[in-house]
Write a structure and sequence with these properties.
D-Amino Acid Oxidase, Chain A, domain 2, eight-stranded mixed beta sheet, about 30% strand, binds 8-demethyl-8-dimethylamino-flavin-adenine-dinucleotide, binds P-hydroxybenzoic acid
């Protein structure tokens, strides 16, 4: 098999890249380890930056998102029994976010690619990548019981944190920057209407909690937990008791309960590799960087990467110009590090760090009070949360 761009992974990065390339007449094949049903049903992110929404809309995949997604103009920070609203439009010159589940974005992208005759090979894991330094890299993949080869001009490694493309890069080329946090998030899906019109980020001595939403009938709630904990240790009654305690507000506001239909535990880490490229292999999205979910940046960074990569590839295939590809890593890493800082900062401000002494706890409280009382500090949060403009 042969194509121009061999894409490993049908997550947001791989699917959107394939779509953007197709619009410019460039061919690609996507190899995806999981089934279509799995890809289209796994619950992950929910917050889309304004720039992500604009890109999906302007390239023809925004119709369902505009209909079913919910535009939010602010979030609430909650601590010491009180809520403080951060208003996005007034602090960012009119920008906002859209709540629309990642798997819905994936459904839209899979459909638009397949309708256009695009090739997405599901249940087809890539095994390794050869000849990265030459002109004709090759992806070896498993198809049923056979190993086959996809030869291409360029490989896009869009296979997430645990994929094979990053590990195909020879030792000594990449520098890894890693930070693990001493907590994870227990996430639940709850049937029922939202308890509040906007997301609530709560800082509490018992730990962080987040009330988010997926639709008018499905809520997504999180509580900070031990990263090594297991969902079996969290019967529904314990989850509700922690959520009520951490989201408590003095004015009598109450979180609405409903049937819990799914539970999972997510570890929290920050991770970046530099550079995001080697030879003809370009890494995008979680394959190159991870952020803790507190800033809601992961999916949006994946989108920002492939926006840059698609532009550089279009230039390369139409004029032979390599400038954009050579600058790919440095261009992306500027936004990546900004998002890494924001995600780390939100995480540090809102979570309970078991090892913190009283001094550090006092600093954390001072930071929270500053963010909700200074327009400049609130604007810093708001402009990062809605997403800085693309460069
Ligand atoms: P993905 O989504 O992990 O997709 C990679 C795809 O590659 C496939 N794959 C392979 N395919 C072929 N061969 C192999 N050898 C392969 N190995 C892997 C996988 O099956 C998969 O389909 O990476 P991508 O495209 O870079 O997208 C990244 C985002 O998915 C991720 O950053 C976000 O979900 C992070 N995230 C959030 N991001 C946001 O922007 N806003 C949010 O509100 C938000 N909330 C979250 C989140 C992530 C969470 N979890 C579960 C970590 C909330 C949570 C709880
Ligand atoms: C979500 O809805 O899953 C979500 C929202 C905001 C975050 C993280 C996750 O910061």
């Amino acid at each position: 098999m042969r194509t121009q761009v061999g894409i490993i992974g049908a997550g947001p990065a791989g699917l959107l890249l394939s779509h953007l390339l197709h619009r410019a007449g460039i061919e690609s094949v996507i190899l995806e380890a999981r089934s279509r049903t799995d890809v289209e049903s796994t619950i992950r992110a929910g917050v889309l930056e304004q720039g992500t929404v604009d890109l999906l809309t302007s390239t023809g995949v925004g119709e369902r998102m505009r209909r079913d997604g919910a535009v939010h103009h602010g979030i609430e920070l909650r601590f010491d029994g009180r809520g403080h609203r951060i208003d996005f439009p007034t602090l960012t010159g009119g920008r906002a976010i859209t709540l629309y589940a990642q798997h819905e974005v994936l459904r839209d992208l899979v459909k638009v690619r397949l309708d256009a005759g695009g090739q997405i090979l599901f249940d087809t894991p890539a095994v390794d990548v050869d000849d990265l330094d030459g002109h004709c890299p090759a992806i070896r993949f498993r198809s049923g019981s056979r190993i086959e080869t996809l030869t291409c001009d360029v490989v896009a490694g869009c296979d997430g944190f645990r994929g094979v493309s990053r590990t195909a890069i020879p030792d000594g080329v990449l520098t890894e920057h890693v930070r693990a946090y001493p907590f994870g998030w227990l996430g639940v899906l709850v049937e029922g209407p939202p308890s509040a019109p906007e997301l609530i980020y709560a800082s509490h001595p018992r730990g962080f909690a987040l009330a988010s939403t997926r639709s008018p009938t499905l809520q997504r709630l999180y509580v900070q937990c031990d990263p090594a904990d297991e969902v079996e240790n969290w019967p529904d009654a314990r989850i509700w008791s922690e959520l009520h305690a951490r989201l408590q507000r003095d004015d009598g506001w109450r979180l609405a309960e409903g049937p819990i239909v799914q539970k999972d535990i997510v570890p929290m880490r920050s991770f970046v590799v530099e550079p995001m490229q080697h030879g003809r292999l370009f890494l995008a999205g979680d394959a190159a960087h991870i952020v803790p979910p507190t800033g809601a940046k992961g999916l949006n960074l994946a989108v920002a990467d492939v926006r840059v990569l698609s532009g550089a590839l279009i230039e390369f295939f139409t004029s032979g110009e390599r400038g954009g590809l050579d600058a790919y890593s440095a261009t992306c890493l500027r936004r990546v590090w900004r998002a890494e800082h924001f995600s780390w900062w939100m995480t540090a401000m809102l979570h309970h760090f078991p090892e913190d002494d009283r001094f550090l706890q006092k600093l954390q409280q001072a930071q929270l009070h500053y963010v909700v009382s200074s327009r400049a500090a609130a604007a810093t949060l708001a402009e990062n949360y809605v997403g800085l403009p693309f460069q």
